[in-house]
Predict the structure.
Amino acid sequence: MYEKEIEAAAGIIAGAKYAVAFTGAGISAESGIPTFRDPGGLWDRFDPDEIGTLEGLTAFARRHPDRLRQLLQESVDSFGQAQPNPAHYGLAELEIMGLLKSVITQNADDLHSIAGNTRVFEVHGNLYRFRCLACGWTRKHHRDEILGPISTVLAMETFNIQELLSVLPKCECTGLMRPDVVMFGEAVQQLPESFLEARSADVLLVMGTSAMVWPAAGAPYEAKRQGAKIIEINPTTNAYRDITEVYIKDLSGRAMPKIVARVRELRGN
Ligand code: APR
């Protein structure tokens, strides 16, 4: 399926001087993490206007502790078992080949780093990095250090918000810490560095995003403006149809291994 597009994409990537990847929730769908806007996705089951901001989430927790418990249980279940899938590993392999120079991701699930990519720009933050609300100090934790204690609280007979807050990491200044993820209305992270990467790219590999959330969604346009070739992998929408050179209507976890295998053949390694 899509052999012609796979061949075209592999040919472009094999000749890249500075390939960059731009990814969204779709790349982690095959790792068991639900996307936001697909049928059954997070925004299908929870209202982003209600829980997409810190204020909204705090009010939601007070008003609907049971629904918060459901949201946390689903998140712990999906993020806790998630491993990188062939799409993540394909990007890591392209970095080892010296073709892919960085990954700009909207995902906060850490899967690109776990897969082995070493230059990952997380414009919407990272779930396992916590930031102090008082002094701003941040510290990255291992996934289990965070999800383990939360699971214990969720397993209790009655769900208690204070109990939940008590197991979250504490700052040395004794301030409360929150996950260092970007919620609606908050400043995105590493945007200048990410757009510099996009502008430096001669090939931009876009996968798993609906291109709905700005300013992150602007990255492919930054690359295109500098003459980059845009390749998109998405099973339902060609979200960047106006600038895409090659569109592969497939799952990224299925298309990437084919692309990387062909790149290896073309480069004789
Ligand atoms: N492979 C590739 N793409 C996929 C796959 C897959 N296996 N499964 C789904 N997709 C595509 C969907 O077709 C959809 O276009 O991934 C896209 C996911 O879109 P969204 O759920 O909107 O996720 P994303 O684009 O990352 O959202 C951006 O919105 O809510 C905010 O902060 C949140 O970072 C997120 C931002």
About this structure: Residues 65-81 form the longest helix (17 residues).
